[in-house]
Amino acid sequence: MGHSSFAFRAAIVTLFAFISAGASSAQSVKVRDSTGIQIIENSSLRGAPVRYVIGDTPILDLGGLKTNPDEEFRSGSYVTRLSDGRIVIPDGTRILYYSPVGKLLSIVGRAGAGPGEFRMVSGPCRSRADTLIVNDVNNRRFAVLDPAGQVVRTVPSSGAFSPQACLADGTILRGERIVPGGPGQTLMTHWIATTSDGTPAHDFGTHPLIRKGMPPSSIRAQGSSVYVGDPLVSEFRVLDLNGKLIRVVRTADTPQPVKQADIAAGRVGFTVREMPSDGRPGGPPSTIAPETYPAFSQILVDPTGSVWMQDAYHVVPQGWTLFDATGRLRGRLIPRVRPESERWTILAFGVTDVLVSRHDEDGAAHITIYPLTAKH
Fold first, then answer.
1. Bridge-based pairing state of the strands 245-250 and 37-42
2. Which residue of 31, 82, 107, 265 could cross-link 86, Cys pair, CB 3.0 to 4.6 Å?
3. What is the spatial distance between Cα 16 and Cα 22, in angstroms, rounded to a whole number?
4. What per-residue confidence (pLDDT) applies to 112?
5. For the segment 340-363, what is each residue's pLDDT rounded down to a tens digit?
6. 3-state helix, strand, coil in the chain (%, to 5)
7. What DSSP string runs through 82-125?
8. Which of 139, 198, 208 is nearest to 172 (CA)?
9. Where along the chain do its domains lie?
10. How far from 97 is each of 64, 204, 304, CA to CA, in Å?
């Protein structure tokens, strides 16, 4: 009782310190209203101070080589934390459940197309009461798992889009279909939210998927809000459950023209070769590249509705910028440079921690949680 009470008080103190540090570090910002839509205009990302730090000592580390290879996971691209602290990791045809302290509790599923079987699991999201929604990609269906990890229902799907997020009303945010884009926009994705049985419930419009070498739009959700970040411009938009735009968050950064040297070196854009109708090798390759660098790579949303914006690939050193739940820019995070072989990738931000996918010197996959602190 005494130990848990102390831990709870310590967590509250840590959270309060993190929020207080953020509150005292807001940069210059202009707020205005445009026909009921709040416009937040922040200063430049590059001029924001570095105010957040990822600790070197992990809070929790999962994975690595095991005596029993069945207890290893080979990929850590998708991870979900449940409300009771359990951690869920999809791994091909299985789903691994871990306790809050890292003990492997259960392994759900096996290869196949029958009940409780999967063929490439991806994109889990936590719905109400710790119900889990996963995309069973090659079986072209969604699976709904109860809090104990049992499959209670499957729903046919296109197989192309994983659940992007679970919304507060129990609906599932996902891409519905790919549609042609306008000039300079190769493909667009139409985003909707459906009930767990696949019934459409909300429409969030179409957003760029592939466009002249630009990263795709970031579509995230938290609670009853959907966040859309288009890398063509330095802003993200917040929609309500009805798809109504309620807030636009911008920074003062302007698009920077792409350098030809980066195109020639293959650092920007991609190469295509036309394929004639007779199937024989086509003509000389051509490069598709954007006219300007992306404003950012992606956005992630933490449990409080704060948004972390990742720098675009050409920015050195690579970092993230935090915007609080009201859209105010709070400061920057510059993670320590890691060896390329480690494949160190931030998957999610908590309020005072960060969840990372990485590989060790043996090439084994890990999911590691590190502390995230604010400088004072």
1. parallel
2. 82
3. 10
4. 95
5. 999 999 999 999 999 999 999 999
6. 10, 45, 45
7. -TTS-EEEEETTEEEEE-TTS-EEEEE--BSSSTT-BSSEEEEE
8. 198
9. 257-289
10. 16, 32, 24
**Bridge partners (DSSP) listed for residue 31:** 40
CA distances to 15, 217, 270 from 240, in Å: 27, 18, 35
Q: Please, are residues 23 and 17 in contact by the beta-carbon 8 Å criterion?
A: no
Q: What is the DSSP string of 321-359?
A: EEE-TTS-EEEEE-PPP--GGG--EEEEE-SSEEEEEEE
pLDDT for the residue 329: 97
Helix intervals (H) in 138-276:
260-264
**DSSP designation for 196:** T
Phi/psi zone of residue 362: left (φ > 0), alpha (ψ -120 to 50 degrees), beta? alpha
Q: Dihedrals φ, ψ of 183, to 5°?
A: -55, 130
Residues shown for the chain: 376
Residues of the chain with pLDDT under 50: 1-14, 16, 23-24
122: nearest Cα among 134, 140, 114: 134
The pLDDT assigned to 263 comes to: 79
Contact assessment for residue 320 and residue 311, using Cβ atoms and an 8 Å cutoff: yes
Cα–Cα distance measured from residue 121 to residue 124, given in angstroms and rounded to the nearest whole number:
8
| Both tokens assigned to 259 | 């350098």
Cross-strand partners of 286: 272
Q: Is 299 helix (H, G, I), strand (E, B) or coil?
A: strand
Tracing tokens 């735009």 back to the chain, one arrives at 245
Sign of CA dihedral 151, 152, 156, 161: negative
Q: Is 10 helix (H, G, I), strand (E, B) or coil?
A: helix
- H or E stretch including 302? none
Contact (CB, 8 A) for 238 and 323: no
Give me the residue label for tokens 């949303």. Answer: 301
How high is the pLDDT of residue 228? 95
**Sheet holding 104-108: strands in order across?**
80-81, 87-91, 94-98, 104-108
Report pLDDT for 2: 38
Cα(86)–Cα(8) distance, integer angstroms: 18
Residue 15 belongs to what H/E stretch?
helix 2-23
Contact present, 333 and 322 (Cβ < 8 Å): yes
